[in-house]
Design a protein that fits this description.
The protein is of the alpha+beta class. The protein contains 3 helices and 8 strands, in the order E-E-H-E-E-E-H-E-H-E-E. The chain has a domain at about 10-125: Aminopeptidase (3-Layer(aba) Sandwich), CATH 3.40.630. It is globular, with a radius of gyration of 15 Å.
């Protein structure tokens, strides 16, 4: 099913296997966002059927301009991935809802989304990014480690959750 046209917003473009990848802000309540989040939730529910293992909460207000962002990656106009960042307070922000559709994996789209989220975090004045992923997601763990994240103690709603892995990254000052 084709997706409806998206709003014209500033976007990041990069080339992946002769395709143009555009990463841009998207309203989290849009059809595109809802479709990607549903696919992510379905995949996570299959990986983690245990009661209380999943942490899907992300309120629309947490990704409004000035508080965070919800980004969608498109290849040739089709949505292929998403990710969000939300301020936690102080100078910390949490990466949430990272997902790339299975047929687009292995093309560095997740890295592109994560890089765009880091730029957004810097714009918001964030000094530390944190995230939670799961023990059954080796590709996600590898992506985050490659991007400079290290394991940190479980925080917030993830404390006491044996299937959770929390990671963090200190953002260094950008050099000219």
């Amino acid at each position: 099913m084709p997706f409806p046209p998206r709003s014209l917003t500033p976007k990041l473009q990069c080339e992946v296997a002769m395709s143009i990848v555009e990463i841009q802000r998207e309203d989290i309540s849009s059809f595109v966002a809802a479709s990607l989040i549903l696919a992510l939730n379905t995949e996570l529910e299959a990986l983690y059927p245990e009661e209380g293992a999943l942490h899907f909460r992300l309120d629309a207000g947490e990704v409004h301009e000035g508080r965070g962002a919800f980004l969608v990656a498109y290849i040739n106009g089709q949505p292929v991935g998403c990710g969000a960042i939300r301020l936690l307070g102080g100078l910390r922000a949490e990466v949430k809802r990272m997902y790339v559709v299975p047929e687009a994996r292995g093309k560095k789209i997740g890295k592109g989304i994560l890089d765009a989220l880091e730029r957004e975090a810097r714009r918001l004045g964030v000094k530390e990014m944190v995230l939670e992923t799961g023990v059954r997601q080796p590709r996600a763990l590898s992506l985050y480690e490659t991007a400079g994240f290290v394991r940190v103690p479980l925080f917030g709603e993830y404390i006491g959750k044996p299937l959770s892995v929390c990671m963090g990254k200190t953002l260094k000052e950008a050099t000219a």
